[in-house]
Here is the input.
Amino acid sequence: MELINRVFGSRLGSKDDAKARLKLLLVHDQVDLSPAQLDSMKAEIIEVIGRYVEIDRDSVDFKLERSNGEIALVSNVPVRRVVARAV
Amino acid sequence: MSECIVITSGKGGVGKTTTSANLSVSLAMMGHKVAVVDADIGLRNLDVILGLENRIVYDLVHVIEGECRLKQALIRDKRLENLFLLPAAQTRDKSAVNPEQMRKLVEQLKAEFDYVIIDCPAGIEQGFKNSIAGADKAIIVTTPEVSAIRDADRIIGLVEAAELPEPRLIINRFRQKMVDRGDMLNKDDILEILAIPLIGVVPDHEDIIVSANRGAPVAFDDTSVVGEAYRRIARRVSGEADVPFVALQPVGIWENVKRWMGLSAKAGVK
Here is the structure.
């Protein structure tokens, strides 16, 4: 079965699992924030953005990523419309 | 100008001692005067890999505690007259030595030798701190596995925090066949994650076990592709630029036949 899967290309090599797990693991090893702390950071940031623009809170994508040894907070926040505010 | 290089990894069993032995042998074969220090106090093994276990009288802790002179503890290799081993103590533990004492010891060695290679123990505690204390440079050994790469990343952070400049990476136990079928992280995957310069890729090969059985590091075997991988690492370490990597394809039947007939496998090494 494995052979058939491989021939038809439906099975990814296990190295992709290794790489994905490592990337996540190393970010969390380095950042030293618990999942709960990350969630609360996410909630606060969304809250702040929400004061200025109306956002689609359910499709906010929010994660820590690492490339070339540098950690970045990568987020995609879909904006529905800019809220007009008197400053 | 002499240089002290620490061989480290975080995780145990990835090949630090084998790397230390073969790098030291290869540098000595190039004509450099080399001292290799076993810093794994309590679990010494470098003596066995080098086949020098029967000649130990004094060890690193004896030197540090002033029970003997440095020259009395250094064991001259039986094959290379410019290669010396400073063995670890077997009946003591890591707390027998502190980083300041190691720094002084390395200074003394550097006055006599071109290269001082330190075989660091696994872990990030006292033994690691002792090992990096006197080092000018670090080489990180990893294997293409999640646990080894995770620990390598941690060690790279610690080495950089200790202000050792730019650690370099050796990928050990590399299996091209598994990479080809997508079941092993390849060179680029690992470099993308660890983001330090690569100084060598060593194929996973039976020769390593055979050479450990005999106490004759594989770098002495000029027909071995693994030996060639180590010799090339030594050339890069000594500053030679653009040394090509060995071809990592598994050895085929024809190459085996040639080896049985005593012909060099170097012909197959690109």
In short: Chain A has a mean pLDDT of 80.
